[in-house]
Design a protein that fits this description.
- The structure is a single chain.
- The chain is an alpha/beta fold.
- The protein is 24% helix and 31% strand.
- The protein contains nine helices and 22 strands.
- It has helices spanning 87-104, 162-177, 222-229, 283-297, 314-319, 333-345, 358-367, 386-395, 407-418, and strands at 6-10, 13-14, 19-24, 27-32, 39-47, 51-61, 127-134, 139-144, 151-153, 192-199, 206-212, 233-240, 252-257, 262-266, 269-273, 304-308, 325-330, 351-355, 374-377, 399-404, 422-430, 440-447.
- The termini are far apart.
Length: 449
């Protein structure tokens, strides 16, 4: 097989990235925008030693899973990868991703519980980070193209709230009317880098963060325009990020309007959300995940619960009334302050929140003799580091409930824990990110006696 060959393929599976997989003369060929069951003519665009990449030349026989994409930017934007198949097919694929990781990486022989899907596939995100670019004449917002920093203009994203688009359009009208420059990554000049919006699902309160390359008064006249037109906006923050970096937020915030945060409810608890706070992007789905985690923990009421990577405390606080005491650990200082405020606001008196690296704080807790009965861990995509895993093993809780947005690292960490005294009891895929390639997993591990 060579580049530019046109071959016939039947697509037999999907990858996390949304590519269909077919085989030609024993070699795997990855083809975007295909569905399981598609028979296609495929043009080969890249050939490597063990696999190749192709694009659709012609769909000979379409899969029964295939539907018409409903977004004009779908093939260009780097967000959604499954808008061309039914949601039922997407859930089957995601359950397979989790199952395959736990069997292939984790070497487990048990099947997952059936995947739980979302009630709504559209407008579910409570957070949007929109890069700003210029076409040479005017500034515009959009989304990064897949595997690039090229900004694709999109008038309406179907997975974010419609009001985010309306607010962003109003900002760009002001920006272009006042000759405010978009930041140019290559040249490292210009002012406005990102429009960052967060909204409380239950409260409908919105916080707008304008990410800029340097402090500026250019947006002073924008505040009254936006807050009159969109009374849901309760706070506006100017975030200063002068660095050459892929990280969106800088370290310095200037509050231009409001208190610098918004309020929402999570699992019946009132929570404060600031620009730097970790907060799940799909609130109803997150509530289902936390309920499942609590069911897995099966509290009696006498436990000490350790919540690692606790963020603003939402996981642990949702369970605080079911345990004797709660300890939350998080490395982001603003998030810990939010967690403490959230505990006070909800009259939770059995909670302690500690700021620091999860691994180091876990070791500190071991040294001070803290012995949690249950550990809830919700790490970033890279999973837990060795220090955290080993500290968890030293604390030897009866149960570990592992929540993960990356089934591969969850399977890896579960295998490590099971090689050192634990047993995987069950695990459940739960979709929080419809139409994207991401899926959440909740795992229960118990200490073997």
């Amino acid at each position: 097989m060579n580049k530019n060959d046109v071959v016939e393929l039947e697509i037999s599976s999907l990858t996390n990235e949304g590519n269909g997989v077919g085989r030609y003369e024993g070699m795997a060929v990855f083809v975007p925008l295909t569905a399981v069951g598609d028979v296609i003519r495929c043009k080969i665009v890249k050939v490597l030693k063990c696999y190749a990449y192709g694009i659709i030349d012609e769909i000979i026989t379409p899969s029964s899973d295939r539907i018409g994409p409903d977004c004009p930017a779908y093939s260009k934007c780097g967000g959604c990868v499954f808008r061309h198949i039914s949601y039922e097919a997407e859930l089957r694929a995601k359950e397979g991703f989790v199952r395959d990781s736990f069997m292939r990486i984790g070497k487990f022989n048990i099947l997952p519980e059936p995947i739980q899907g979302c009630k709504s596939c559209n407008h579910y995100r409570n957070k949007s980070q929109l890069p700003v670019a210029s076409d040479g004449e005017s500034a515009y917002f959009g989304f990064f193209s897949a595997r690039s920093h090229r900004v694709i203009w999109l008038e309406d994203c179907l997975i974010q709230p419609e009001i985010f688009t309306e607010i962003s359009k109003a900002i760009m009208e002001y920006v272009n009317s006042n000759s405010i420059s978009a930041y140019d990554e290559a040249a490292q000049n210009g002012l406005l880098r990102h429009i960052y919006l967060r909204m409380g699902h239950h409260s409908s309160e919105i916080i707008l963060t304008l990410v800029v390359a340097k402090p500026s008064h250019a947006f002073d006249g924008l505040i009254s325009i936006l807050t009159v037109r969109f009374p849901q906006i309760k706070s506006v923050v100017l975030n200063i990020n002068p660095d050459k970096t892929n990280v969106i937020l800088g370290r310095k915030d200037i509050c231009l309007y409001g208190d610098g945060y918004i309020m929402d409810d999570m699992c019946g608890k009132s929570v404060v959300i600031s620009p730097h706070s970790f907060y799940q992007v799909n609130t109803p789905a997150a509530e289902d995940v936390y309920k499942t985690a609590a069911e897995y923990a099966d509290f009696s009421g006498n436990e000490t619960l350790l919540d690692l990577y606790c963020g603003i405390g939402t996981v642990g606080l949702s369970m605080a009334d079911r345990v004797k005491s709660l300890i939350g650990v998080e490395s982001v200082p603003q998030a810990i302050e939010n967690a403490k405020s959230n505990a006070k606001r909800n009259n939770v008196k059995n909670a302690e929140f500690i700021c620091g690296d999860a691994g180091k704080i876990s070791e500190m807790l071991v040294d001070r003799g803290t012995s949690p009965d249950v550990i809830i861990v919700d790490p970033p995509r890279k999973g837990c580091d060795g220090n955290t895993l080993n500290a968890m093993l030293r604390m030897s809780p009866k149960k570990i409930v592992y929540i993960s947005c990356n089934h591969a690292t969850a399977a890896r960490d579960a295998r490590y824990l099971c090689d050192n005294g634990y047993k995987l009891v069950k695990y459940k895929p739960m979709d929080m990110f419809p139409r994207t390639g991401h899926v959440e997993t909740v795992c229960l591990l118990s200490r073997q006696s």
